[in-house]
Amino acid sequence: MKIILSTDELKNKKVSISGEKARYLISVLRCRVGDEIQIFDGEGGLYNAKISALENKRVIADLPEKLSYSNESPLNLILVQGILKGEKMDWVIQKTTELGVKGIIPAITERSQLRYTRKLARWKKIAEEAAKQCGRTFIPVIHEYMEFNDIFKKQMNGLIFYEDGGISLSNALQNKNIRDEPFYVFIGPEGGFAKQEIKLAEDRGIITVSLGKRILKAETAAISALTLVQFIIGDMN
């Protein structure tokens, strides 16, 4: 049984859980006094708490010392995803959270079919649930959506995937150490990136990479690219 609470909620030796999370514990999981629950703070902390009381639709739990535990990726991968329509973006956020990304930047590009959204809170909730499901101790940061040009304030280390050219991924990552700083992975929206966007990224130090001869859907490209980067660098092999 796992839930995620903020570090502010975990300051004391007893924690009071209310609202939706308390309803989940009481009504769905049928928790009782004496049951143990795992609590993550989303910032690397893990606690094996014990329920000491159920009162007024609240769950009271005793909080022991923080455990030393992490199954996080050693890579600081940031996904820059051209905003996708409908549930595609939800799916990308869910699956890349499971894969271990540290952050996701929704980007408005020239070919984006969606240029405004109120889904940021929804995306953060999806990331939280995905992190809980796969046992992560960190929740990736879901950034405010940004215009593509505004992302490049400085030289950056990363890759941009482009269906019309680029070097192979293995060559791009050869002898590259990406464990000590943010490494950006750029995936376009439906329709991909425009040529001038590729040029802008290259001017800021981003390497243009191909995923092969077949044209992948944007959501497929995001999952494939991150998995391959992790495998080649050493997080999955």
Q: If you had to describe this structure to a student in words, what would you say it looks like?
A:
- The relative contact order is 0.16.
- It contains six helices and 13 strands.
- With 237 residues, the protein is α/β, with parallel strands linked by helices.
- The two termini are 29 Å apart.
- α2 (87-99) runs parallel beside α3 (120-133).
- Strands 6, 7, 8, 9, 10, 11, 12 and 13 form an eight-stranded parallel sheet that branches.
- It is elongated.
- α2 (87-99) links the parallel β6 (77-82) and β7.
- The mean pLDDT is 87.
Label the structural class.
alpha/beta
**N- to C-terminal distance:** 29 Å
Q: What string gives the helices and strands in order? A: EEHEEEEHEHEEEEHEHEH
Tally of separate helices: 6
**Helix share, percent:** 25-40%
Low-confidence stretches: none
Main sheet: strands, sense, barrel: 8 strands, parallel
Strand content: 15-25%
Strand segment tally: 13
Silhouette = elongated
The residue-averaged pLDDT reads 87
Q: Whole-number radius of gyration?
A: 20 Å
